[in-house]
Structure formats: structure tokens, C-alpha cells
Amino acid sequence: MLEIKKMTCSIIDSDIPILENFSLNIKEGEIHVIMGPNGTGKSTLAKVIMGHYQYEVNSGDICIDGESILHLSVDERAKRGLFLCMQDPTVIDGVSNSEFLRTARGSITGEKVNLYTFIKDMEKAMKDVSLDSNMLHRSLNQGFSGGEKKKNEILQMKFLKPKYIILDELDSGLDVDSLRIVCDNIRDYMKENKKASLLIITHYPRILEYLKPDYVHVLKDGSIKQSGGMELALKIEKDGYSGINVVSGGEDNE
Contact 56/62 with Cβ under 8 angstroms? Predict the structure, then answer.
């Protein structure tokens, strides 16, 4: 289980909380969604879970399988099974896709990655996400379109096999065909990895029609104001967030 316990966090050296008394429990195999107006802390939540250096947890805790991860660095959290599909993936010039993925996989498994097996797996995975095989040798995200960057994030997910996956506005910048491709790959991954859990941060319910969430949570003013199912996402699409002002539904997702 990924547990966030009454967490308050802020930017380093700031007294103004971005998330306040925030709680969320994500159990094995569950799909949760965070929606909310701009500037409410959705992307901050993703970064804080991963241990971004610009943020600090002022109170509360983040736990994986009952153990606090607040003391762990970003790479150590990744080794515990956390994975963030970034809203705007980073370009790393001079480091090829293949070098990046082979090094990352070896770091997580602690084993030497067989080159022949790796290349075969890469070629299949790139075909699955509809990326040209020549991108295997290009610098990470260098010259990639917005859609190619997002597909490359899903490629990384398939290779690193995380247990807790955070999608930060994955649907941003994707056309209809690309969204279907990445969602098909995520859905297949969840079927093959029954214990994997998913936290989706989005503004739009289209991605949810593919991935069928168990819970939808509305984040507003730094905390969850309402929880429900897919019907809540559809209501927000129709009516907006103006009617979301009171807490409804348990934060523990029971």
C-alpha cells in the first residue's frame, strides 16, 4: 500500500502550505484519480511523493508497505517501486534512450542487463508504444514531439516494472490515437502486474474511460474535498468545480 498520512508540505523555505493535512491510501491493484482546478497542488503531490528537492514535508508521512520513505532520495524511492510519468519529460542530451533504460533497469534489479535480451525487449516494447526503433539510439527525449515523449515515459514504465505508478497529466499533448496507444499499454501492464497501483492526475475524463478508475478524488485548496467513482469525473466535466466545497466520502477510500 502507498499511504499518505495527514501530510502538510510546502516549497523549501516557505511557510505557505501547498497541501495541508492531505491523506490518501492506495492499495494493491487500485486505480485512483486526482482532479482539481489549476494551482491546487496536483503536480506538487506527484513531486512530493517522489522526493523532489524543491519541496519539504512539514508534517505527516508518506509510507510504502508500512515504511516511511521521507528519508529516502529520489533514486531510492524508485527502487522501492515508485515511478513518475512526468507532465513535461526532461531532455537529457548525450544520453541515449538505450543507455538510460539499460542503466536504470540494472540499478533497480541490481543485476547486469544482458545486451542481447535487452535489445530484443526494447524493440518489442517500442513497437508496442508505436515509437520508431531509431529512437533507441537518440538522446533521451531530444527532438521528440510531445506525444513521443509521453510514449517514451510508458516505454520506461514497461521496462522498469514499478509497483506504484503516478501519471502526471499523461493525456496532455496526446492526440486521440496516441492516447489510445499509451492507455492500451498501461492497461496491459496492470493486467500483467496484478499488484501494481496507479495514481492518475488529470483534468479530463477521456483517459479515465480507457483506464476505469476505482476512485476519483477532487483536490481543492490543498486537500481532498470529495471522493467518488467515474460519475464524479463526468459531473466535473459537465458542471466544473464550483459545487465542490465540502468533504464527501472517506479519505481512506473504504
Answer: no
